[in-house]
Amino acid sequence: MQDPKDITIIGAGPTGLFGCFYAGMRGASCRIIDNLDQAGGQLTALYPEKYIFDVAGFPKVLAKDLVKGMAEQALQFKSPLHLGEKVAGLRRESENGAPLFTVVTDREEYPSRTVLIAGGIGAFTPRKLPLKDVDQWYGKGLYDRVLDPRAFAGRRVLLVGGGDSAFDWAVTLQGIAQSILMIHRRDGFRAHAATVAQVRELVAAGKMELRTFWEVKAIHGSGAIERVTLVNKKTKHEETIAIDCVLPQLGFISSLGAIAEWGLEIEKGEIKVSQIMETSIPGIFAAGDIVTYPGKLKLIATGAAEAAIAVNHAVHLINPAAKIEPGHSSNMAIFGQTED
Ligand SMILES: Cc1cc2nc3c(=O)[nH]c(=O)nc-3n(C[C@H](O)[C@H](O)[C@H](O)COP(=O)(O)OP(=O)(O)OC[C@H]3O[C@@H](n4cnc5c(N)ncnc54)[C@H](O)[C@@H]3O)c2cc1C
User: Fold this and answer.
1) How far is the CA of 120 from the centre of ligand 1 (A)?
2) Of the residues 231, 250, 269, which one is the last residue of a structural domain?
3) What H or E segment, with its residue span, contains residue 171?
């Protein structure tokens, strides 16, 4: 059992990260939990190489660079970040007469005085290859998340997909994998144009192969993956080739999942919140893409503002003597500043 914290934040997307920073700035203890292996939410999972133009203070910033800055800002107060854990359950208890929530993940239980749900469009899980026996190959050469490129040293790799992740890995695994074959079911790619151009150069230089209109039909091997049968969607031509590792990079599916069963008021899959970002359960706040209220905009900027509102009210709820208004960071002793 973990220590009770003032605020447990579900989701390490931009909203959750900014909420974590704000909690630290207000002197509240905080933890942050995310289902993914990396912080950043949609920015990391869906468009790390895209430029963002509408975040205050950055005329133009790559999504992955914005996440880096937000994570550094968020974690400066040493709040624990629990990655790779999916929040499922919630228990409502009490601590010295005050409400206490226990947030339950697939690994741990986290007691907390308040909760901030910053779950975006829900927990992402990688989209699987549409093969009946797909689950049996996980860990035996089939990986939908690449954590360490060196794990593919000297291996014959098949990349499946036409988005940023597939193209990024085609570039990153150069000089590491023995060979790289990339297939996509269409001839249009969702990836960043610069990375597509880079991959085309690698293909032209004979450093990898790229096939369009091909799909995986079957995976073969005794114990681990040894061969893969591919099928051309247009010609129906089939080919079985020697492959050690298959990396499907087919995007993510998301769902609100178990949070939808917590008894919160929900409208069209989104959590209804009041003006102070509180849900229908006192002590549970929500912010970012997961919430709805009149005039809601699903943007990084609005998610950050909502997180600040939620955290300030959570701090005041836990300790009514603490002001809701945070004051100005430019005057705060916590940053080594003095009053004007
Ligand atoms: C292609 C694309 C381009 C975009 N471009 C822009 C842009 O230019 N400007 C802009 O302002 N916005 C842009 N957006 C929108 C922006 O990305 C979102 O508004 C923003 O990511 C919302 O942040 P969030 O933290 O609320 O949610 P998310 O980024 O979705 O993060 C939520 C996190 O919560 C985690 N989570 C959810 N449920 C659970 C659970 N049960 N257990 C554990 N973890 C959980 C998820 O894994 C995820 O990491 C773009 C979106 C896309 C898809």
Assistant:
1) 5
2) 250
3) helix 164-172
Question: Does the CB atom of residue 14 touch ligand 1 within 6 A?
Answer: yes
Same domain, 176 and 90: no
Distance 132 CA to ligand 1 centre (A): 30
Looking from the CA of residue 300, the nearest atom of ligand 1 is: 11
β-partners of residue 267 are 270
Give the pLDDT of residue 189. Answer: 95
- The pLDDT of residue 121 is 84
For the residues 164-171, what does the mean pLDDT come to?
Answer: 90
Last residue of a domain, one of 197, 226, 250: 250
The pLDDT of residue 49: 73
Mean pLDDT over 284-296 rounds to 96
Collapsing DSSP to helix, strand or coil, 227 comes out as strand
DSSP-based three-state secondary structure for 31: strand
- Asked if 243 and 255 touch (Cβ cutoff 8 Å), the reply is no
pLDDT above 70 for 281: yes
pLDDT value at residue 144:
83
How many structural domains does the chain have? 2
Mean pLDDT of 217-238: 97
Query: 234 and 258 share a domain?
Result: no
Q: Do 264 and 328 belong to one domain?
A: yes
Range of the domain at 185: 128-250
Polymer length of the chain: 340
Q: Are residues 227 and 132 in the same domain?
A: yes
How many CA within 13 A on the CB side of residue 144? Answer: 19
Q: What is the best residue among 85, 300, 311 to mutate for testing ligand 1's pocket, by most ligand atoms within 8 Å of CB?
A: 300
Of all atoms in ligand 1, which is nearest to the CA of residue 42?
Answer: 29
The band of 90, judged by pLDDT with boundaries at 50, 70 and 90, is: very high
User: Does the residue 340 lie in any domain?
Assistant: no
Any idea what the CATH number is for the domain that residue 328 is in?
3.50.50.60
Query: For residue 155, how many C-alpha atoms fall within 13 Å in the half-sphere facing its CB?
Result: 21
Residue 154 lies in a domain: yes
19 Cβ below 6 A of ligand 1? no
In terms of domains, do 106 and 149 share one?
no
Same domain as 281, residue 206: no
The pLDDT assigned to 147 comes to: 66
